[in-house]
Amino acid sequence: MHDRMHAGGGHDMTNMPGLRGVDATPEESAELAVMFNNFETITRMVEELPNGIRTVTASSDPEVMDTLVSHVVGMIARVEDGRDPQILIQSPTLDIFFERPEAITTDIEVTEEGIVVTQTSDDPEMVAALHTHAGEVSAMADRGMDAVHEMMMNR
């Protein structure tokens, strides 16, 4: 996995300090690096539901797919526990998730299609945040770090 991070002459962890966080483990930061360095292998479909989202995310690379699953499962567990990793590049959209995790119902399933996440809420503010965050994640899956830089510039 570590060889993979440096393949293709992309960023390495020393050049990606924005992936570190106040409460992020080195493994979590490394997962982000794998996904950013291999974003072109990632496909994502988002369905906006009236009360939330349904997303299907996959990678054509089995190692990246494993990393995706680990990241999604780990971050959703963090939200449920209210443990904000405070990653430097993290979107402010995530704040509400960590403040009110009880307002989100999450279902995760790994299928042939990819990792399928359905998140719903009765709270209109949370639904809006779910929609916004799904768009942010899709932008990152499409354009990698460029999308992050654009989002940070717009803040």
From TrEMBL:
Region (Disordered): 1-23
Protein name: DUF302 domain-containing protein
The species this protein was found in: Marivivens donghaensis
